[in-house]
Amino acid sequence: MTKLKQILAIGTLVAFSQLSTAETRLPTAAVFDLGSLDTMAELGLESQVTGVPQQMIPEYLQQFNSASYSDIGGLKSPDLTALSTLNPDLIIITGRQAGKKDELIKISAVKQVNMSGDNYWHALSDNVNSIATLFHVQDRADKALTDLKGYIESTKKPLNKDATVLVVTHNSGSLGLREDVISSQLLGLKAASIPSHVKSHKRGTRTFTPLTISDIAETNPTVLFVVDRSMAIGNTDEALDVNTLKADLAEQGAGSIKVTYLSPKLWYLSGNGLQSVRMQIKEIAEGL
């Protein structure tokens, strides 16, 4: 285990992969990143997963919500005791767990998923390939990425190229602009232009762009896609009432805007995986 930590500490995933070969076994993983989890499932690596954040597992990953997998805490509150007991070879995290990274590194090697960069497909492919390298399933990853690329291209062809889309996040009654790479980069859909009077605000390293119903009506997209954070994290009392949203838009003279409510956990908690991206592509295409 100590050697595994040292290898990942210097960022050498290939060396980690070679070490697992030398030990004649594949590494075990506690996985907080749900996109990486669905990638591992797609690549047939469920048996290498030993722990997941069971409180927040989306419907499409319910096979991991069982006694076969240890509960390792919440997405923002890793259970350090459970992880220490589990003692996995690897902990896969995202920015949500970054604040606990120093503590997690004391337990096991840590791989933090980073989807930064201007080319989403390249970032997605890099993450899938890094997982495939760790677990010696590159041939499966190559096929899965080729199949996903083909699915994207075949889905993209018949879409209405004149449609404009606006993707927003709903949180406890407030709406905010969501920069969505699935609709823009992968499907090539045109983002509706936000009115110039709408301003963005910085909170730490993050940028927020609040939108009112009036702003959305003025933007007048063909389709308004909504990601409901409140529902995703279990605040059902504060979840979006879609009928009320439609009525409010109609009052502003924007009743022609089609409102599509996306699967909350898929879009807010997951994504960036082989299975989740395919599902997101399908939801956007069907929601146009």
Automatic annotation (TrEMBL):
GO cellular component: outer membrane-bounded periplasmic space
This protein's record includes keyword Repeat: no
Listed SUPFAM superfamilies: Helical backbone' metal receptor
Keywords: Ion transport, Iron, Iron transport, Signal, Transport
Residues covered by the Fe/B12 periplasmic-binding domain: 28-288
GO biological process: iron coordination entity transport
Gene3D superfamilies: Nitrogenase molybdenum iron protein domain
Superkingdom of the source species: Bacteria
Annotated localization: Cell envelope
Family in the record: Belongs to the bacterial solute-binding protein 8 family.
Name assigned to this protein: Iron complex transport system substrate-binding protein
Species of origin: Marinomonas alcarazii
Lineage per the UniProt record: Bacteria, Pseudomonadati, Pseudomonadota, Gammaproteobacteria, Oceanospirillales
